[in-house]
Amino acid sequence: MVIESATDLFEVLDQFDPNSSIHLKALEVLVDEYPHFHLIQPYLLKAIQQQKHEKFDKTLSLAAISTFDRSLLYSFLENEEPSPSQNTKEIEVPKEEVETQKTKTKETASPTTMRFSEWAYFLQSQKHEEKSKNLEEKFQLIDAFLSKEPSRFSPKIEDKNKEDLSELSWASTDELMTETLAKVFIKQKKYDKALQAYQILRLKYPEKNSFFADQIKTIKRLEKKKD
After folding, report:
1. Which residues of the chain have pLDDT under 50?
2. What is the 3-state secondary structure (H, E, C) of 80-135?
3. Which of 1, 164, 180, 182 has its Cβ near the most Cβ atoms within 10 Å?
């Protein structure tokens, strides 16, 4: 079979059978003639996966480079229903063995030696682990910082200016972090930076302006005593 027109091509794609040697040959000829025709790359790869396993890795590399979304390529290769000509028997594998095999593949395999399904799983797990690791490291840094002197972050509320603690329940993370930072600056006697922090809070949270204004007055009094 020779693909000589768009009609021939769409006929092959509509009736595509990855186990058909005729379709495989026609697609190979077309790719040789038009190597940058990306539409047919996944179909050729699927046919090679079923018939010419020795060419699969090389063709996979080319198809993966030309595919804008590799997850679609993965779904096309791995998730389609098997052809009726493939008489396969489902074998139940114990869950423990599956988990062991996943762990073994994850620890020992590299992207250059994996099958496509393993390679896709590897990429997805690497991204997930990297995000989890970055998030975990951030939390560890925060915990380490807070554990050094926890009393440093205990708010001191004067009798004349007792704030309703229920307001803290809806305060944003930015507010709490900035106010905590201001308290650290006061403890370190860096009053200029503490004033700057409370000025930022006044602008961002005008509904608590009176509270922040009182804090600013307190800092200014401390600054005068320092001088």
Report:
1. 80-93, 97-98, 104-117, 153, 157-172
2. CCCCCCCCCCCCCCCHHHHHHHHHHHHHHCCCCCCCHHHHHHHHHHHHHHHHHHHH
3. 182
